[in-house]
Target: DEBR0S3_13960g1_1
Amino acid sequence: MVNLPPHNDDSSMRNPANWPKSLQEFISHSFEQAAKQNIQGMEKKKFQGELRNIINKSIKEKKVLINDWTKQTLPTLCHPYGQGLQLYCDIVEKKRAKNLKGKKKSATNNMETTKLGQNSKAVSIPKKRNIFEQDENDPEAISGVEEDGDKENPSKKRHKADIKVSKNVLEKIQEAEADKNREKMKKEDELRRIVARKVEEERVLTAEKQKQKRLAKLERKRMRRAMRKAALKATQEADQKAKQKAIQEAKQKAVQEAKQKAAQEAKQKAIQEAKQKEMQEATQNVNQKQLANQPTNIIMGSAGTSKEKLDVMNSEQRKKLREKRFERELQYEPTTDTQTSDKADPEGRFVGTCEKLEKKYLRLTSQPNPELVRPVRVLKQTLTLLVRKYMEHAHYGYLCDQFKSLRQDLTVQKIWSLFAARVYEVHSKLAIEFGDMGEFNQCQTQLKLLYADSRFQCINKYEFYSYRILYCLLTEDLEEAFNIKLQVLCELPKDAEIPEFLTRAFAALNFSLTSDFYRFSKLAMKVRDETDADEIKVKADSQTDSQIQQIWSDHHLLLGHGKWYFFNKMLENIMHRERIRTLDTICNAYRQIDNSVLGQLLLLDRGHDLADFYTKHSLAGFVENNSSGGILVCHKAKSTVDALFRSTFQTIDIKGQI
Model:
């Protein structure tokens, strides 16, 4: 819409809302034509000025409603050479006046001609006939007859001459008008041809420019493609050279280490041989002495050398035993058979014989004792017992200790199977529920290796991938989160639908990366509501045995809860950190905020959630009561919230604890 300065001529037409629809369409059409003709720079300013002036002129002359805007044109757009900025109605009026003037002039000429004809008719001399009934004016009739007879009247001759002149003048005027019209039409045709030629030249020029732009664009694309190929090739060559260089350096280093090791072994061997030689020489010298006071010394000397030799032999024996033990352990291969026999494995692999279902966790400081290690059959019974006790609300300290003991028995027996994956999955979910992120991280480390083994088809791996992504958000390890996302997307087939757990985990990752807490809270609210609905349905079913059987089914590990229960638990841990981050942002941006609004923003809209949050973080003293239920004075609480923010976002230790 064109901005017009105010005019005092017509107040109603200064408001664009009162303009007729044809004027608004004329403005839109003019801008479309300007865009099509690609008017830029001074031409664009000239076009805008013409549009503004023509509308101001119509308002000033009160012709907004009179003018035919559908036929109105602008000089900049239509290129009518020699024509200024005029309203279409004024052009029509001028043409009408000109035509009317031409008609009046023509009528006047006709009237003059008519009068001349009438006069000539009035003064015309009737034809006289002679006695032979011949016209006396006929030269043939009167030739030779008149000699000195009556001559023609001079006034009559002048009248005839005037009539003849009038006719000639009229013909000349008509011929001049026709020539003038022909000249005008010729000029108009020439002007139209010039305009058409200009338009065609501009069209050809525009097409040529567009063609050049397309060619330049294609050339730029080709250059970029070639540069990318060259860069990729250079990168690959550099990587290949670096790889070859690394291999050569590794080989040289291995050779040097081998040489150093051989030299060291030769040196140690030479030292041992020298010591043995010295011992032999000392023994021979002692035996040759025959003095009376020497036996005691001889006995003591021989005892000392024997003791030294015994120490050397003991260290050598210990070294050999240690090497044999390491060789035996390195030759172990993980078993994938969940039905491992309790008897000794013929290949020498370790198999436990303990029949106790419950056993305390003790860190190993020596070789494991088979009598204290449970076989797979007993471990399965132990897992079922622990799940039952969990559903009977056993203490997490006891459950964690038992699961660590169970995992230790799996490790020492090299059990690598779907049953091992199920143990780590159950322990991961217990760690999520009770907020033990250290144990959760240890379980995820083993699950990552199990899921990467192509021999096992773990149906719950995408669910636990989503838990790992949320754990990376909690520890702010975004690089690992995106690595997991890339790995999952590469594993899934192209046409396969992304599982719902991963869809929501990816959404949480994107919202956290863009600091979009509003959408993050909406996602958390949706998961929370679905979890509450599922928990109501689960509580209605009190059959514990059927729920325990789900551990061995092909469904999710529900453990007596809904599908989204553990996902919601992970989101709650993240929400605590995001609430602190959002509250810190709010306190930096607002002086005060209403509690109802803050409760919705922080997803603390149930019961006394917001009041408990204030009390927990020592913010209750910054709340003032009002008619709407209270407000938080942000500028006073800012320092406390900043300290809370710094303490919340602190370093993560090596075990994954916050």
Observations:
- The mean pLDDT is 77.
